[in-house]
Each structure stands twice: as C-alpha cells, then as structure tokens.
Design a protein that fits this description.
By secondary structure, the protein is α+β, with helices and mostly antiparallel strands. 41% of the residues lie in helices and 23% in strands.
Length: 534
C-alpha cells in the first residue's frame, strides 16, 4: 500500500513538472523538427515567402538578415513587408506554426541574367526544405549552409523537370547557422535591382578625385573671389591713403599744431577703425598735458607695484571737451577729486562702454565713416560665422549621404575668410581717407622729426603734446626720452607741469615712468573687457 502511494505521488510530481512553464521553455528552446519554406519570385521582383515549422505549438522568433555589405561604399538592404500569421517589428519576426511575408531587394542583375538570393532558413532546425518558383526557367542554382561567410554547400539542391521549380534541403542546421539559396533566372525575368544604401565612412565621405577636387577648386575660387570683391568695394579708401600720405609737421611757429586739430583718441579710432585700449590711454595722457588733470606718481618700495594718482585740476574748462573726452573724464573721477589708478574699478569699468560708444559717434560726426565701424564689423562677422555654420551643416550632410564632403569645406573656408576679413570692411568716406592720409603723414613726422627746429623754451610743452599721439603710434619711448632731457629753460628738473614724481624722482626717470604708466593704464582698462586689448 505504501509502495502504491509512493508510485502515485511520483507520477503526480512528474505530471506537474511536465506541465510547468520551465519545461515549456526548455521545449521551445530546442531545435525545430522540420521547417518547410515555399518561396515565389514574382514578376515585379517581390519574393513571397511562406514558412511552416513543426512542431507548431511553440513560439518561433527569428532575426532575419536585412542588411549585408555590397561594396566599399554601400550596404545591400532587404525589406520585409505584408507579414501574415505573425508579427515583425523591424528586427524580430515572431510566429507560431505558419507565417507569410514579402521580401524586396533579393534580385541582382548579372552579366547573363538575374540572381535571386535569400537567407531562407535560420537554425536550429533538424530538417529544412526550401521550394522556389519563379517567373522563368532556372538557369543555375546553388545553396550554402552554416555561417553566413561559409561556402559549404547544403545537403541537396535540385530542379524539377519543368525547370521552373527548385528544391533545397539541409539536415542538422545548428544555432546561428543559415541556409542561403541562390537561383539564377534569364535576363529581364523581373527587371528588379538590389536596394542599396550608402554606408558612411570617412575614407569615402571626403573622396578626392578629379570631380571633387575640381569642384572644390571652382567653389573656392567663386566664394573667395566673392569675399575679395567685397573687400575691393568696401576698402577703396586704403588705395587713396597710399597715394596721398606724406610727412606732416606737428607744429607751426613753435606751437603745437596737429593735422586738422585731430585729438589722439580720434586718430586712434580712425587709424585702426577700432575704439580700443590704446585710444583711451592716449586720451588720459592728452587730458593731462592739456591741463584737465595731473598724473602723480606714487612713492614705492623696491618690490611694490607702481601706482599713480589722477588729480582733477580746478578751473579746467571741461565744457570744451569733446563728448567722448567728457565721458572718460566723468568715468575717471565720478564725483571725486582724485583717484588711484589701481582703484579704477567699479563705476569706471561700467562707464567705459559709454566712452567707446562716444568715440564711434565722434568719428561718425566727423564724417570719416559712412557707417559705424563696430556695426560694420559685427554685421560681416555674423555673416561669416553664419556661412561657417552653413558649411558645417553642408559638410556633415554631404559626407553622410554622398562622397562630396569636401565641397562643404569650401563654405567653411569662405565663411572663415569673411569673418576674419570683417575687420577690414569698415569703409572710410573720402573725407575719412584724406584725414587718415594726414594722420599717416603726422606719424612719419613723429617717427623721424628733429628737435632742433623747436625753440628751447617751448620744447617741454610741445613735446609733451606729442606724447599722447606717440602712445597711439607706439613711439612712446622716443618722445618720453626727448621730454626727459629738457625743461622750459633747457635744464634738468624734477617735475613737469602735468606729471609729478615722488620726492626722490627727477625728469631723467620720466621715460621709464611714462612707459610703465602706459602699460599699467592699458592693463587696467583691459580688465574691464569693454575694449579690445593692445
């Protein structure tokens, strides 16, 4: 009795295990007993496939091969559609028992006809049979079993007597293995062609050959020629200046006489078409030599950082200042009578934008430019960067979809040239070109003028007036040394009317002091980020 109960319990346990999901999964994961595939190649080149598996109870999941390498630049694509009896999500084909679907892209034209190739069965399966019919008589056939790269023939391949139906068989197709069938038909049987998609590779995306090289050269000539034409039409004043500039004296009858009474800040902005650091530094020195402020060098120890105090002079006729000079004057003092150069921060930095704007407004008021130089540069720079961005997009698209990626580089180069050349785009009027010609003549005079033709008693004042212009033309050292050698009576002294040093200082040190002052002032202005650095 006990033995009978034990046997009944064991039988019940085996029945439960047989019905459990784990057993179902194990059964489903085993190889299929048989896979029968019927394929019909239709006259439009579409391959209709019907596949039946046994046993039919389990779910079959396949990952059809839909992309293979065709050549160095293209992939061959097979498109599956019209699935019946199952589902296809673009990657996995799922069905139970029987499934039907269409495949496009399986036919390839050959020298003697057309070739059908399809990966008919995927393992594991014990016995696979594939039957193929087509729109014409079979001219040749072959089959391969195993890995996709394998060249091992399948178990058998044959053609029936009518010559229109082919049959392929394969025994023991393992996991990861495929049965590939190939059938040849007469030329024009379907007229179909393979579906090719270009494969992105850097080696082919930027192919250099006669077509791409010639096109790139032609496009560069066209685009860079256009940039050159823009400069030619916008920079005519440069040619006027080259023919009219000549040395121009900076004094008349021993008195300071700059060309057309142009101030240093104006000359600086006219000269390089930029309201920059050096223009503001030169204007500060100019305000000092014209008795609007005084520069006091502060005493210091050996390793101390040099510093200067800017002192407002009482009774200065500030109403005679030009707008940009007044804006700078107010930014320096801002309601105070003196300020250390090292303390020019805060409101000074914030108000430098007003000084810069006033400088550009001034050169416009002088009639030297038809449009504000900064606006012109900004417009052309923006356009150049836009062309660069367009070139980047064009290069990516051309490289991704074609082999003409090099052509996009022409746009990038042209855009970069336009953005770089934007600094040369501001156009001077005829009046501005003539003023620049005189400015360059004055620069030649300052670079090589003799001090002997100026009366001794007027040299300190006259040469001090030259200093702000020397800052603009980067010849501070020469004129600072000249000033340090004289005073009103031709003797050494320990101060100037606009520049004073500490107790141990005398005028012989002025050249070094002035050079350091210009560098330190320019650095203080540069930290405001309102002006272009030197």
């Amino acid at each position: 009795m006990v033995d009978l109960a034990r046997r009944l319990g064991l039988a019940a346990l085996l029945a439960v295990l047989a019905a459990s999901p784990a057993h179902a999964v194990a059964a489903a994961s085993g190889p299929l007993a048989k896979d029968e595939v019927t394929m019909e190649l239709r006259e439009n080149g579409v391959l209709h496939v019907k596949e039946t598996v046994a046993p039919a109870g389990g779910t079959v999941r396949r990952t059809p091969l839909t992309r293979t390498r065709f050549d160095d630049g293209h992939d061959r694509v097979y498109r599956i559609s019209n699935v019946k009896g199952g589902s296809y999500d673009g990657t996995t084909l799922t069905f139970k028992g029987t499934v039907e679907y269409d495949v496009t892209g399986t036919v390839t034209p050959t020298a003697s006809g057309e070739e059908l190739r399809w990966f008919a069965v995927s393992g594991p399966v014990q016995d696979a049979v594939v039957t193929v019919t087509g729109p014409g008589r079979v001219q040749n056939l072959s089959c391969f079993a195993g890995e996709l790269s394998a060249a091992i023939a399948c178990t058998s391949a044959s053609v029936e007597e009518t010559g229109t139906t082919s049959t392929f068989e394969q025994q023991g197709l393992g996991e990861g293995q495929t049965l590939t069938v190939v059938v040849g038909y007469p030329k024009g049987a379907t007229g179909a062609r393979p579906i090719l998609e270009r494969r992105f590779e850097l080696s082919t995306a930027f192919t250099l050959n006669a077509v791409t090289g010639g096109s790139l050269a032609a496009l560069l000539v066209l685009l860079l020629g256009g940039v050159g034409l823009l400069y030619w039409t916008r920079g005519r004043d440069a040619r006027v200046v080259g023919s009219e500039s000549a040395p121009i004296s900076g004094h008349r009858d021993g008195r300071f006489s700059p060309p057309n009474d142009v101030r240093p800040g104006q000359i600086g902005t006219l000269f390089d078409e930029q309201a920059d650091v050096v223009d503001v530094t030169a204007t500060i020195v100019d305000l000092a030599v014209r008795n609007y402020l005084r520069i006091d060098e502060q005493p210091r120890q050996t390793y101390d950082t040099p510093d200067w105090c800017l002192v407002k002079l009482p009774g200065a006729p500030i109403g005679h200042l030009l707008p940009y000079e007044r804006a700078l004057y107010d930014a320096i003092f801002d309601g105070r009578d003196r300020v250390l150069l090292s303390e020019l921060q805060g409101s000074f930095a914030a108000r430098l934008a007003t000084v810069r704007d006033a400088l550009y407004q001034d050169v416009m008021a002088q009639g030297w430019f038809a449009r504000r130089p900064d606006s012109t540069r900004s417009r052309w720079t923006t356009l150049g960067l836009a062309v660069v961005a367009l070139g980047v997009v064009a290069t990516v698209l051309l490289a991704w979809f074609t082999t003409y990626g090099l052509l996009g580089l022409a746009l990038i180069i042209a855009g970069a040239a336009l953005a770089f050349g934007a600094q040369y785009m501001p156009a001077k009027t005829a009046k501005g070109a003539a003023a620049l010609a005189q400015t360059l003549g004055f620069r030649q005079y300052l670079a090589g003028a003799s001090v002997d033709d100026v009366p001794v008693g007027q040299r300190v004042e006259l040469f001090s007036r030259y200093l702000p212009y020397a800052v603009i033309f980067d010849s501070v050292d020469r004129w600072a040394r000249v000033v340090s050698a004289f005073n009103g009576n031709g003797r050494q002294t320990d101060y100037l009317y606009w520049y004073q040093g500490p107790a141990e200082w005398d005028l012989s040190r002025f050249a070094d002091s002035m050079r350091t002052f210009v560098m330190t002032t320019s650095g203080a202005i540069s930290t405001s980020r309102q002006f272009r650095s030197l």
